[in-house]
Amino acid sequence: MTSTASTPAPGTVVTVKPIVLPAPPARGADLRVRVSAPVAGHDLPIVLLAHGFGSSLDGYSPLADHWAAHGFVVIQPTHLDSKTLGVPEGDPRRPRFWRFRVEDMKNVLDNLDVLEAAVPGLAGRTDRTRVAAAGHSFGGQTAGVLLGLRVGDPQTGQADDLSDPRVKAGVLLATAGNGGDDLTPFAAENLPWLRHPDFGHMSAPALVVAGDKDILPLTVRGADWTTDPYVLAPGDKSLLTLFGAEHFLGGISGYRAAETTDESPERVALLQQVTVAYLRHALGIDSAGWTAVKESLAGPHPLGRLESK
User: Fold this and answer.
1) pTM value > 0.70
2) Between 269 and 1, where is the model more confident?
3) Which of left, alpha, beta for 284 (phi over 0: left; psi -120 to 50: alpha)?
4) Which residues of 1-24 are buried (b: 16+ CB within 10 A; e: fewer)?
């Protein structure tokens, strides 16, 4: 993608699903993937998009469709925690859901040839030096791990480095913050991958998006908990705070999705604009849009605030 326009015109998109990748036997199911890609253009950057807990490759169309229409190949795996797979309570895989998610993303990166070949006309048109990871909620943690976030494994106690050098930048949407005493008893007991995160090694560039009304039953702190990936991580980070936004940030999980409690097309449109500009900037395509977005959100704005460090 060589355009230097700050906001490239949207193009036609082709979507293929499900593309099935073999997965390790311990996963217990093959990996089903959705790919959305522009029908035109070359050197297309790649975004891996991790869904929130319980969702699937069919979620997040307001983001996936928009990113693909603006020049990105968007790849969405269905992770083991998806309701579509029905992994039962008590299943021994559940405490390691977080780890299987990271392995899913690496499986995708290992099989880009297969995925490209499954999409008509896509083979040879991607730029594999420009890969970003994005995710919402649980998916934000998944993307963060690829960028250097370390998670204390609830079974081994280890906090291994599972980052992937193929991933150059990230977008973390409504992502869990610090563990320990910041968690509610429910979260500490039922979501063991939240107990001991370490943001101190997450040095890769990232845009963190938080809603200032995102009050989750997982933390005793309130909405500022989801700003921790920005506050606690080193390196080149930006934080978009959306005013009035709850956990689904105005409706990113789907068009008119039932779980959206703060339906706001204007908020989603701003998020689409900011994320496209950021991804183009962070992946070294061009920075004109990012500069314009920063200027527009530097002062008073009815929908949000953008800051960087």
Assistant:
1) yes
2) 269
3) left
4) beeeebebeeeebeeebbbebebe
